[in-house]
Amino acid sequence: MLSSDEYVTFADTLPATTQQWGEIFPPILLAPPTSAWTQPAVEIRPTPAGKRGYLRAKRMFDLIACFLLFPFALILTIIIAYFIWLEDGGPPFFQQTRTGQHGRRFSMFKFRTMVRNAEEMKQQLMHLNELQPPDFKIANDPRVTRVGKFLRRSSLDELPQIINVIKGDMSLVGPRPTSFKAETYEPWQRQRLAVVPGLTGLWQVSGRSELEFDERVMLDIEYIENQSLWLDLRILWQTVGSVFKGRGAY
């Protein structure tokens, strides 16, 4: 284990930069994984026993919030589902297998925002990918329907994940679950799987779609090290702002 002084000296020799997102955290070191690293850029410590109370309170907050929102969400779900069906006659909901806590795979629910043969079209669009694989996202994706564009800009396509939160697959706040398996992660990236994934997280309010996967993982680890109910509330509040601005959502 490097001392703090040795760590700073070691970091100065690497092609690293420091960035700061908002006022929640101090600047953190960002460096691409290289063979020079003998340990992760951000080291995560085991969750102290004192965090157990926080985790229980977090779960209780998730359930109370979901049940309070459920009547409104149900009405909105019926309306959105009708417009999705009206556009192309296809199913309004979409299930995708995602990776959750400790690498456990689960079915995540979303509103369908793409045409029904979206997966078949994906291979033809790989050359337009704007993110580092295995992520895939392109602006003005031709597979996205008219209703889907609105749902993505407003983030309403995530609304059905309230069911995942109630089931315990997800939390309101946490690292976003990925579609690819834990086995494809770099060893240091698997630290983000230590907690229950969330509807929103620190990287959603720090750039959302514009961040590369390594940057998002570093922010997820930073969240895990500093998680608290106060931080969760701040992230939820900032998520509302990001949704209204439509920043990074396409």
Can you walk through the features of this model?
It is built from 7 helices and 6 strands. With 250 residues, it is an alpha+beta fold. It has one domain (52-244). The protein has a two-stranded antiparallel sheet. A hairpin with a 5-residue loop joins strand 3 and strand 4.
Dominant shape: globular
Which structural class should the secondary elements be placed in?
alpha+beta
Number of H/I helices: 7
Major β-sheet, in short?
Answer: 2 strands, antiparallel
Order of helices and strands: HEEHEEHHHEEHH
**Spatial separation of the terminal alpha carbons:** 42 Å
Low-pLDDT runs of 5+ residues are: 1-44
Question: Could you tell me the radius of gyration in angstroms?
Answer: 19 Å
Tell me, rounded to a whole number, the average pLDDT: 80
User: What topology, given as strand order, has the largest sheet?
Assistant: 1-2
Percent strand equals 5-15%
Helix content estimate? 25-40%
Give the domain tally: 1
Report the count of strand segments.
6
How are the SSEs placed, and which strands pair?
Elements: H1 4-12, E1 17-19, E2 28-30, H2 51-88, E3 93-99, E4 105-111, H3 118-122, H4 146-154, H5 162-167, E5 171-173, E6 198-200, H6 213-226, H7 229-245
Parallel strand pairs: 5-6
Antiparallel strand pairs: 1-2, 3-4
